Amino acid sequence: MIAQSEVANRYLTMAKTFFGTSHPLFNAFGIEIDEIGKGRAVMRMPCSVALSDRHGGLHRGVVVTLLDTSCGLAIFSRLGDMRPIATIDLRVDFIREALPGEDVRAEVECYAMQGDIAYVRGKAVVCQDDALLASVSGSFAVGTLGPAFDTTATKGTE
Amino acid sequence: MTAPGAEPLPAYCAGLSELQKQVLDDTPYVHFLGLKVSREDDGTTCYQLCFREEHIGNPLLRTFHGGILASFGEVVASLHVLEEAGMQQQPLCTSLTFDYLRPAFSGTIRAVPRVVRSGRRFIVVSVDIFLDKSHVSTGRFIYAR
Fold first, then answer.
1. What are the residues whose beta carbons fall under 8 Å from the beta carbon of A106, sequence distance 6 or more?
2. What's the pTM value of the predicted model, to 2 decimals?
3. ipTM higher than 0.95?
């Protein structure tokens, strides 16, 4: 049996390959993975003028996108593979807007798995001072349409 | 591909309020999304989003990212609130609930917003998103006045 840290490292590498280099949205957002493992994922992205609202802070839609992505990664880490998943529903409460210059970090855990449904919850905070921006909860269908991400990611084919 | 009979769309067109135009112009993320706003013959506002590589969620299926769909929904909901509720400033979105009904494959998606209730303190807006005739997602957004 492989040690948990080794598994985590393997998936961190795999996820970084998949999320980091070839994905147009994640490239555009500048999303980076801080942590992945044991059903938990932490991702962050820098403040960007191109992705901001009228006041210069990251737009709330961007925060939702980061949270949704982190939910997916948290589920992959609980599953131990990257079979296809799809968001069933997502709820986001906005505590406050991100301010200009504030980088955002999403911390999500997959806290339950029942049948083919994975349940997630988490939050988005300001990287600089951990101020709470938004909370998220949702459910995802596991094993949906399409090929698994890890087989294709490792083979590098589409 | 645009719907039959639709004009090539400018970023926005006549018939929008000054505040709506300001919001569209001054929000960089709206430009990143590539939102198109136009008027139908019957006077209703039509909101569309054409698929781009930067919208991809699942690169193997080439579907819209769930966050992009929710972003599109929220931007449309907030523009609709400005129009329907006679707001003098952009309202604050306090929460959203989004249901993903079908995979939203690459194409032009269309959002149809509706005010569910416009109260003294809160406004509840629902937005349905369609890909051609297919209902791909539905969202509910709460705004504080």
1. A41, A42, A43, A44, A63, A66, A67, A69, A70, A122, A123, A124, A136
2. 0.89
3. no
